[in-house]
Amino acid sequence: MLLRQLFAASIVTTAIAGCASAPATGSTPKPEAGRGVSGYPIVQRWIATLNPTQSYNSSATSTQRQNAYGRVELTVDPNTPTLTDVKLVVTVPAGLDVVGWGLSQGRCGSGNPPVLAPSAFPAIQISPSGRGSADAELPFVIPETGTYHVNVFRGTGTQLTNVITCGELRREN
């Protein structure tokens, strides 16, 4: 009888030990890239305040500070990860009916070309009060590293000498 009880006890112990297994080391689930700890997608956002720049001309006269300013917000939604939604609001000096803009690598004043062709950045119509806005989707996503800025140009110009306001983008999360 004792042998039968020992045999039964060993079967029960083996069964219980088989059901309970030690957790594998390093198997802690990690959030997917682009997902927060709660499992919700992380929206990537960059913002910049557009500050007036100096106006340059070819003569040796002093420069003139432009009276142009605004704000820009770039957002990448995880549901459309290859597009960046741009919302830009700008106030410019009297006399301008349209302004151009562009997204470039580097800091304001670097003179780097835009990351896309100028035609990718729709012109901004300026109201009689001097305000204008753009709401566009760009087929470009800012990399995690590097510095980028947004230039607003006088008229349809695209050169550094045409920049009336500029803002350096910073990541916001």
Over the alpha carbons, how many angstroms does the gyration radius reach?
Answer: 29 Å
Beta-strand percent range: 35-45%
The major pleated sheet works out as: 9 strands, antiparallel
Mean pLDDT: 79
Description:
By secondary structure, the protein is mainly beta. It has a single domain (44-172), classed as Superoxide dismutase, copper/zinc binding domain (Immunoglobulin-like, Sandwich), CATH 2.60.40.200. 10% of the residues lie in helices and 36% in strands. The protein contains 1 helix and 11 strands; from the N terminus they run αβββββββββββ. The strands form 2 sheets. Strands 1, 4, 5, 6, 7, 8, 9, 10 and 11 form a 9-stranded antiparallel beta sheet that branches. Strands 2-3 form a two-stranded antiparallel ribbon. Strand 4 and strand 5 form a beta hairpin. The model is unreliable at 12-24, 26-37 and 56-62 (pLDDT under 50).
Give me some keywords for this one.
173 residues, mainly beta, Immunoglobulin-like, 9-stranded antiparallel sheet, two-stranded antiparallel sheet, 1 helix, 11 strands, 10% helix, globular
Short account of what is shown:
The chain has 173 residues and is mostly beta strands. Helix content is 10%, strand content 36%.
Q: What's the topology here?
A:
Layout: H1 2-19, E1 44-52, E2 54-55, E3 64-65, E4 69-76, E5 84-91, E6 98-105, E7 124-125, E8 131-138, E9 148-154, E10 163-168, E11 170-172
Antiparallel strand pairs: 1-4, 1-10, 1-11, 2-3, 4-5, 5-8, 6-7, 6-9, 9-10
